[in-house]
Amino acid sequence: MKIGRNDACPCGSGKKYKKCCIPKYDKPVATPAPLKIHRDEDFFDMRGFKEWFDKAWTPDKVKRLSDQEILHKLHDMHIPMTKEQFLIDIEGEVDFPPVYELWKKRYSLPIEHKDADLVLFAIPELWRRWAPDQIALFMLEDMMEAMTESGSKTPKLPQFETIWTTFKERFILPNGIRSFDEFYERFESFFDIEAIFFDFEGEFILECRANKDGQERPFDRLISLYEDILETLPNNDLENRLNIRRSIAEAHFYAGDYDLGERLFESLTTEHPTWVWGYVGWGDMYNEASLLPSILNKNKAEEIYRRGLGLAEGGEREALKERLGDV
């Protein structure tokens, strides 16, 4: 039985699957075929696997082919494709599987054909080459994969800004989508852009604090990103919206706008007095010497944590107790 994104996580945490154990970045990995074992149990015969792998098509192998080589191989499979016909076939599409299904029907492509995988990989490869401005879902996934795999010295915020702008202009606004959940209901995607955003948030903050670009107000771009997500996707689940509002308040503190940050946290905790993480984020602004040494105030932090402990509900109150212990 397939677990839905909004179903309870099977690990028993009580959280939704999408907020707990759902894979965030990695694409599903195919289960390898069993290895053949000789009578000598300590010797594994890899020859069969190697021979199969050498003949099998992969995205990298197709990428190394020229346009003409790809078209030639498609013609050998009785798919008389041209660039002009390809551009007609992808018009109006946002991903390659519908095009693959179209070709299977039009050209009676047998699933068991030895080069069937070539077709599956050729469509997105030709799309990248011939229609790079018609952003497809797999191209957005390319961008997210590049971001998650980029080294620690590569800034992440500029990459995510590009991803968000592409996501918004290509998939969200044209389709009237109002939440991440609605997007996942409409489109199949291996990557979870919502999870990537929150998992890299710490790096975004560090990059703004480092301000290697020498911007006058480096946190303004991060705050604008937060606010744009809230405005563009107003129907996101409550936890998501609260976390972004908390992030906006924190960013104002990091930017030196302490009074505004105070007002935002006050508003957040007043509107949602039982939400633990509003108090955690607020108190942490005064409790982390390494983050904001100029406003370090353990008494203020303790006051906020205790206020939250008296109002917050649920097992997450333990986070407040732990911080009170540290104070």
From TrEMBL:
It holds the Pfam family SEC-C. It comes from the Bacteria. InterPro entries: SEC_C_motif (IPR004027), TPR-like_helical_dom_sf (IPR011990). Transmembrane segments: none annotated. This is Preprotein translocase subunit SecA. It comes from Effusibacillus lacus.
